[in-house]
Every structure is written in structure tokens, then in C-alpha cells.
Amino acid sequence: MLHTQARQTTPADHSSRARQTFTGNRGLDLEEPLIFEIGRTEVTGIDVDEPATTKTRLGTLQRNDAMGLPGLSEPEAIRHYVRLSRMNAAIDANTYPLGSCTMKHNPRLNEKMARLPGFADIHPLQPQSTVQGALALIEALVKNLLDLTNMSAVAMSPKAGAHGELCGMMAIKAAIIARGEEAGRRTVLVPDSAHGTNPATAALLGFEVKSIPADADGDVHLDAAKALMGPDVAAIMLTNPNTCGLFERDIVEIARAVHEAGGYFYCDGANFNAIVGKVRPGDLGVDAMHINLHKTFSTPHGGGGPGAGPVVLSERLAQYAPVPFIMRERESLRLVEHTEATHSFGRMTAFHGQMGMFVRAYAYIRSHGSDGLRQASEDAVLNANYVRACLADLMSQPFGDRPCMHEALFDDAWLKGTGVTTLDFAKAMIDEGYHPMTMYFPLVVHGAMLIEPTESESLASLDLFVATLRDLAMSARRGEVERFTGAPYLAPRRRLDETGAARKPVLRWSPPVPIRDAAE
Ligand SMILES: *Cc1c(COP(=O)(O)O)cnc(C)c1O
Contact at 8 Å (CB) between 387 and 465? Predict the structure, then answer.
């Protein structure tokens, strides 16, 4: 057998269902080795004639070793990837309550639209006259994003939320340079509860990061924020709703304070799904905000596809937006690709952004309409509060019984003395078929468990999820520690050394027999 790592099971296994099988399979859950372990270097999946002349023109560049690529027939290759895909947690298979990530359903209409040849089969270097329809779609999406945010401009090219943060902060930096203040304005204020990408972005651009504490209610501490405002402040980076799932109560006052100090307000818009159609960030005083199309507007993310992080900009920053952007010229649309006479800070990426994601987001927006988008936000908030209320008697909440926005936050105070940690609890959820919620984030909450069900979940699926968590919680309280500390028992792999994997990743597979010998 080629299997190098069959499932590890121990006699202490929680369930007899974890019994070892001969194949390593467990019913429909199939074991699968690496493709290099099942493929054979001497085999290819296709059968083509040897070319008549094999005279090479590569000279010394010619490869003199076998490449070592695993060869598989088509059915073998398909089985390999289908089996791997079945080891993934996926929103298409079950509730995926990963807080801050907005794992919502991607309507299949989006996929159908993205596959239209006029969008899917075009090339970024095609003459602009031949892609007018695609440009028109981007222009329409731009208009929708500006309407939803009440902002002045949008940069479409950033490829993820973090990339959008970089783009927005580069626009802020360009504005500060244009004012001749780059030597003095070097501080960026970031709350303790921020996503790690916020301080990373500010630091990457050479700013000094100062952190603002949270107050007892989970909001940014208003007086602490105000005390830090001064002529050195370039910007504040604030997430709203914040990563505790709460709407920042003092956001308008914080915006006013940073503007009075001569700085800019960057809003991390990753949690926009809670407020679309309810609040326009431009009305709150935001100067720049990224929108994760792959969160709020349902385009796939994680293993499902690339992200897209357009950045909306206020009037004060619009002129510094990166190229490319779309301009209407008489009857046609033109992609402005060079900075020309504008104050644009330059370019974020080659080409124009993630066209397939633009199509999906636009399809989502148009198929929902303005009332549907508002309802999606309301339902996301309702679902999160339902989960929160259904668990509140068993699991402790760090900020009391305050209603949340789109995600419900619990801490680990209720686990005290049980011998079960947040991590153990999350691992036991895997045995129940759920991807765990976000753990240990935000950092301001001890043993945080951040649950974001999104509006995609039906009442029945929420009830099952809640009942599962209640069962787990009561089990922890009853002292059934083994159910947790040894979990997951039923996943294709057991508990892994995640720190080791991150610090010392093994990225290369070495054949048991050197390829040169095998090829002979
Ligand atoms: C997801 C997220 C980001 C980063 O977005 P990516 O698309 O993953 O780069 C930033 N801030 C918050 C609060 C987020 O949830």
C-alpha cells in the first residue's frame, strides 16, 4: 500500500465509529494519498504519437533529468481531485460559521453569468473596442458600489481586502504628500480589536502604528482615541461594524475628530454585509473603505476562488485613485491606463482586477435589487442575534447581552474549570460536521469564539446548529473532557501540529526512490 499516513486511531477513541478499516476509508469518506504517491512518472494520461523529428533546438538548456511529474489516466486524475474536494469544509455542504469571513451562499446565477464567453473568454490585452460590454459591466458595478456607500470614486483593481487596505492607505499617503506633510504625519491609529491586516498595511507603508484600546462595551474607547489625535496623525483605521460584531456607537464623532486633526478616516469594510442598504459609509465621514466582494457580494473565496477588494474613496481622496479607471467618451468607454495628467498614485496590479468576480458581484446586486440587499443585511443580523440569544444561557458573552450585528461573539469564561479550551470546543465541532467558528479573534476577548451564520442559513439549519452547540456546551459542562481534547475523532486527519505546520512547513515531497533510478 502506498498510504504513508493512514488515519491514526487510538484505543481511547471517543466513538467506536472511529474504528480503523483496511483501506483507511470510512464509508463514503475516502482516504487519498498525494498525487505523487499514486502517479507513475513513466505514465501519461494522454496518448500522442512521437513527433517525426526529435531534433532539439534547446542546446544546453535541454532537460537531462526526468521531470518527475506523476502521470495518471483521466479517471484516476478525476477521482484524485474529487476525493480531495470531499475533504473540504464548504458552504455548499454545511453551515460555515467562520466569523468575520461572511461565508455566504454564492448563487449559481452568478456562476452562469461569469461563464458567458463575453466575460470569461476575453483577454486583458484585447483592444478596448472589442470589450465594451465588459467595461460597461465594470462601470455599472462602480455605480452600484458608489450608490451603496455614498462615496466619490472607486478603485476596482485590488484583489483582496488586504490589497484594498493597501490601496486606500496609498491614496491617503498620496494626499498627505500632495499637502507637503509627509514628514510630520506619520502616525496611524488602529484599535486593539482590528484585523491583523490593518496594522500590517500601515506598517508596510512606513507609518507608525499606535493602538487604541477598546472600552468595556467593545467599542473603540472614544476619549482614548481623541487623546491620540494630533498633527502627527495621518489616519485612523477603524472597522465598522467592528470585529466584536458591534456597530461603533461613536463613529461619527471619531470621524469628526480625525478630520479636525487633519487626518483621514480609513474604514475596514470587511463587515459591510451587516449594513448594506441601511447605512452609507460616506455619510459617516469615511474617506476610504475596501469592500470584500467575496464576502458581502457572495463571490466565492478561500479555496473557492480569488477575492476582489474594490476601494471606495471620498471626494478628498478621489483624485489620487490608482489607474486603471473607466471614462466615458462620447459613445464608448475607455480604460484610462496611464496616470496622464491626473494625481493618481499609480497602479496596484497588472491589468484591471478580477473580472469574473465583478460579474458575480454585479449579478448578485442586480438579482437582489436595493430592497433585497437591505433584506440580506437585516437577515444576516437577525440570524446572528438568533444564534446569540439561543446560546446566551450556556455560553458567556464578553459585552453582556448587547444585541450584535452580523456576528455573535462569545468568550471562554463559561469553560473555566471544565478542562476544555476554545480550541478543543472548535475541534469537537468538526466531528459534528461543522467548520469551526473563528477562534481567539478578536484578540481583545479571551478565548474568543466569533460566530457569523450569514443570511444564507434557514431557520432549520440554524436550529440544528444551535442544538449541536448546546449539546457540546452541556457535554463540556458535564465534564466529558475526552469528547473535546481528543477531537476531531471523525475527520480525515486528527489533530495536527498547526504551529509546526506554519513555522516549519514541509512544501516539498521527496520520492522514496530517486526519480533518476525509477526512470531506468
Ligand atoms: C477578511 C478581512 C480582511 C481581509 O480581507 P482579505 O480579502 O482576506 O484580504 C480585513 N479585515 C477584516 C475585518 C476582515 O474580516
Answer: yes
